Give the backbone structure.
Amino acid sequence: MTSILSNAIAAKRDDLIALTQDLIRIPTLNPPGQNYRLICEYLDKRLSGYGFETELIRAFGTPGDSGKYPRWNIVARHAGAHSGDCVHFNSHTDVVEVGAGWTFDPFGAEISDGKIYGRGTCDMKGGLASSIIAAEAFIELYPHFAGAIEISGTADEESGGYGGVAYLAEQGYFDPTRVQHVIIPEPLNKDRICLGHRGGWWAEIETKGEIAHGSMPFLGDCAVRHMGAVLSEFEDKLFPAMAARRTDMPVVPDGARSSTMNINSIHGGQKEQDDDFTGLPAHCVPDSCRIVIDRRFLVEEPLDQVRGEITALLEGLRASRVDFDYELTELNAVLPSMTDRDAPVVQTVTKAIEDVMGKSPEYVASPGTYDQKHIDRIGKLKNCIAYGPGILELAHKPDEYIGIDDMVDAACVMGAALESLLLPKG
Ligand SMILES: [Zn+2]
């Protein structure tokens, strides 16, 4: 269905393309967190020109913040002519490393076959550009709207969001008295609404041994064999138990509707030598072996249970295995987040997708976490979804792209949502 606003957005297609290209050409690589100030200044100039009041906010003292790599964020607010709800579009400005395998210039923002190529096109500068165009077209068409529109560009989502949304939430920017509806234009695809994400628990487990000569291992205690026992327990007990659990959350892809765990790394024994080392190893029994685990859990699983399940396996080994000793260090924990299907922002965007695309949206949840966790837990704001253009599977890959038509369609959906939330009814 076309509307006056959809037509106005479609007429801004060239502007949308140029805006996306400009954003891609500012390489905001994280780590280390480059050019955050530059991209905030660009957004400041752009949004100030459309009557937004802007604030540039540095997340002093957050992980990675330094004189060389300051964590800058922007919050831009455009108040309407009357009081009403505030709709906030939050996009992260950071992109992940380029990696190998590109056939396009990762920061060239080249256009080919209706797509813009580059690192961060789909995750998520295309979504940011769509939300800006939607807001600008809406403000031009309805200067007397009620409430307020906010657009934020935030740092460090790819490294946990502590110098971005978490910091802003701590400062009160996502207080439900200030902001009522949040849309995060992550690349979930233009006809899907993402209601939330699974939780994550990251830990390091170290098994301990005793160093001895490799020809007499019985005089020492092999930490790698102890870790082998841990991994056997995981294979025999933990992995089957996790696979049997299914969540009611609509997590995609289907494999992520169960609990999962990745073993990120394992290291035991002697320190690895540099690549140019040509010598032979010394013969030692390893006195330490470490793994890092990445446990993703469901909204139905309390964090204490997730921790307790692994601790119980380790304690079981301590009781049953001679000289078994371990240390478990928690690295980070993020609770699952899930917005109700009848929340106002879900209902509004559902109707907007139906009106713009003539079909009902698919409801999904994300296997990994994103900034919704901070808006939910720190900001205490539950009325939050992810909705934006782009194909999730392209995120972080070589030759990442965003479809221009998809960006226009998603901007029309965002505009239609603004009409429902910020125009007087009737
Ligand atoms: Zn993202």
Notes: Residues 4-197+336-422 form a domain with the Aminopeptidase fold (CATH 3.40.630.10). The longest strand covers residues 82-92.
